[in-house]
Amino acid sequence: MIGRNILASRRISDILALARRSVGLCCLVLGVAGVLLPILPGWPFLLASGRILGRRDPLLRRMLLAGRRGVRRLRRARHPLLRRAGAQLLSPWRQITRLLIG
Predict the structure, then answer these.
(1) What pLDDT, on the 0 to 100 scale, is given for residue 7?
(2) Residue 1 pLDDT more than 70?
(3) Among 95, 20, 16, which Cα is nearest to 53's?
(4) What was the pLDDT predicted at 3?
(5) Alpha-carbon dihedral sign for residues 68, 30, 99, 14
(6) Cβ–Cβ under 8 Å, residues 48 and 26
(7) Could you state, in order of their start, the residue ranges of all structural domains in the chain?
(8) b/e string for 40-66 if b means 16 or more Cβ within 10 A?
(9) What is the phi/psi pair of residue 86, to 5°?
């Protein structure tokens, strides 16, 4: 009897985790589409996806790490305009990262 309750609670928690990740990824897709398309506001969806997925989600961590690497590459670029763009993007990137993962 106790084993069945543990198994049932584990199934429910697995279903809830899957639902949470699905909703978070949908918000992430809508947020990226909103950033690219002028009709849809993207920032609210990006913030919601970061809060829903949480800081331990591997996909979100990889995306944030790729963004950080991109900003670093810009800061080390040979062309001075790219270096300046990287330096200007560093502070907003940190703020966005803090908003997304809390």
Answers:
(1) 55
(2) no
(3) 20
(4) 53
(5) negative
(6) no
(7) 1-53, 55-102
(8) eebeebbebbbebbeeebeebeebbee
(9) -65, -40
Contact 45, 25 (CB under 8 A): no
Percent of the chain past pLDDT 90, that is, above it, reads 1
44 residue type, one letter: P
Dist CA 67 CA 50 (whole Å): 14
- Model-level pTM? 0.62
Residue 61 to residues 26, 46, 56, 81, 85, Cα–Cα distance (Å): 16, 14, 7, 28, 23
Residues 24, 49 contacting (CB under 8 angstroms)? yes
DSSP state of 31: H
Q: Tens of pLDDT along 40-73?
A: 788 888 888 888 887 778 888 888 888 889 888 8
pLDDT at 94: 82
